[in-house]
Write a structure and sequence with these properties.
Chains A, B: This is Phosphonate metabolism transcriptional regulator PhnF. The structure is a homodimer. By secondary structure, chain A is an alpha+beta fold. In chain A, 27% of the residues lie in helices and 34% in strands. Chain A is elongated, with a radius of gyration of 21 Å. Chain B binds a DNA duplex through helix 3.
Chain lengths: 250, 250
DNA sequence: ATGAATTTGTCCGTATGTATG
DNA sequence: CCATACATACGGACAAATTCA
């Protein structure tokens, strides 16, 4: 479990240790009590000086992950990665509902624009036809975990941005347009380093990892109603692909 | 487009620039010819010294993303990611079959060991019962793309390692034990920075990203037959979740 | 073919950040 | 707190390879 740290690859040791502690917490490093091992033990475990561990803990405390108290120890404020399901019936709040006290999905912007090749293909319309773009931010317990960009056919969903903004729910917004249920048709997943926009919008450190999903959602008749690109903070969530019950089509 | 870089975050400027260049390439920074702007221009664009840009380019060249030639310029080595399907009927070679000339899956080790909590839970046996662990390496056109660790109930699949080793196919190996077909029951996906083992086994550069999937495969009756942890080189593959035809269970 | 312009490669020195003990 | 060693970042100057008028 002792991560192999290296000097000279552009990431300071204290930040590698910080990432290691964050990952370790998900694997029970802090135990049931949520209490981190003493700095000296962490220093030995990571093979670095205690000063370096202190710098790492200081950074994590500043991020809100840890909380140090003189004489008592260092305690974890957020436990483990959230598990985000990407099965065919994905709903943001429903999926995270039992893992966080407070989940929210708020709109942070919208626009009408001509569709790009990918969006048009996904929605089954001609390239360049007007689509509605909706930008939203998903939070769990106040911490940003996902940043989505969704597109809708402007001819069919005029006003959906306002509806989503007022309800804070994509399911409710789609229901307002007669879409009673929808399913995820396909999802592609890739991982990359955080760009400047990611560090700003998801509150990430440079060099952090972002999981990117590209999805198409269809109504019950199989007609595409929405496509989206979502960026997740990889250190805060893991994705879970839920399979349907055995015996269905392949 | 000018990313605003910051000092003192524990991430070296040259690494932030490297991430910026990598992101920029995806947005057409290198143009049609795949040629990067001159170092001096990049330096001005990122607001850093040319030496810092050179350090970033050097790192990307070491990763295999870029290639510099004195007097000529710096060029992008265009390699598009392989799409790896993780639907319910995933097969390594079948999934990649049309994207690479030559795909192979070779066994690189095996052992009998007591099952850990996760493996036992996944396979539906008691913790500590003996399981067979099979280590394998997946390649496409000679380049390693995935590194899997699989576990089987030793009571049911004694000798499967030898069968997999000789056939090079997990499907064939399972068929030898009467498993005519199998389906993926669940998959969790997370992303993290490459550890030392990853850089060695998948031939990655330090700081690269690894996609980790944890999966359970069941036979047609729903009985678990195999569980596995697979590490993918995130810069060589993207995962694709294939949905079944609409109308199945949810 | 020659020379100028362009672009990458290498050297110097110096200041600051990081890591150890 | 201190001292020491190494990594990072900057600035300038020049060499080497390529391109093109």
């Amino acid at each position: 479990m002792t991560a192999h740290l290296q000097r000279g690859l552009g990431v300071a040791l204290w930040r590698q240790v910080a990432d290691g502690i964050r990952a370790g917490i998900a694997n029970g490093l802090a135990g049931e009590a949520g209490r981190l091992p003493p700095e000296a033990e962490l220093a030995q475990r990571f093979g670095v000086n205690r000063h370096t561990v202190r710098a790492a803990i200081s950074a994590l405390a500043h991020e809100g992950v840890l909380e140090s108290q003189q004489g008592r120890g260092t305690y974890v404020r957020r436990r483990q990665r959230l598990v985000y399901p990407i099965g065919e019936r994905t709903r943001f709040s429903a999926g995270l509902g039992d893992q966080a006290r407070d989940t929210s999905s708020e709109m942070v912007g919208t626009a009408r624009e001509p569709s790009t090749l990918w969006v048009a293909t996904a929605l089954g319309i001609e390239t360049g036809k007007t689509v509605i773009r909706v930008e939203s931010l998903g939070k769990a317990d106040g911490v940003p975990v996902s940043r989505s960009t969704s597109w809708f056919d402007a001819r069919l969903f005029d006003g959906i941005a306002e509806l989503f903004s007022s309800t804070g729910s994509m399911t409710a917004a789609l229901a307002g347009f007669g879409v009673r249920d929808y399913r995820r048709a396909s999802t592609s997943i890739e991982a990359r380093h955080a760009e400047e926009a990611d560090t700003r919008e998801l509150n990430l450190a440079p060099g952090a990892i972002v999981l990117v999903t590209r999805a198409v959602n269809c109504d019950l008749s199989g007609q595409p109603v929405q496509c989206s690109v979502t960026r997740f903070a990889a250190d805060r969530v893991e994705l879970s692909v839920e399979a349907p019950a055995p015996g269905s089509s392949g």
